[in-house]
Write a structure and sequence with these properties.
The protein has 5 helices and no strands.
Length: 95
């Protein structure tokens, strides 16, 4: 495990303290959870952008976002990305 040090605004610090108290967790654990969540959202956003730009396949987007293929299919659909294959097509293929 690596150590990361950063400066944050007073507002971020107050929010961090509030989360610590609310979740009854140590600061380091709260920061790890928040960072993990932010990285997961960033990976999904990046993979959807690359998919929209036709730079990667749906399967590769799922790998980048670290989510199952079917979930990536759903997320792409929610984002209005036309991948040339509809949810009803997938349901038919699964049956």
């Amino acid at each position: 495990m690596r150590v990361v040090t950063t400066r944050v605004s007073d507002e971020f610090f107050r929010n961090l303290k509030e989360i610590e108290q609310d979740e009854h967790a140590e600061r380091a654990e709260v920061v790890r959870r928040l960072l993990a969540d932010a990285i997961k959202r960033w990976k999904l956003k990046r993979s959807l952008r690359m998919l929209r730009e036709h730079r990667i396949t749906l399967r590769k987007a799922a790998v980048i976002a670290d989510i199952p293929y079917v979930e990536m299919f759903d997320r792409a659909s929610e984002a209005g990305i036309d991948i040339g294959y509809s949810l009803s097509d997938l349901e038919k293929d699964v049956k």
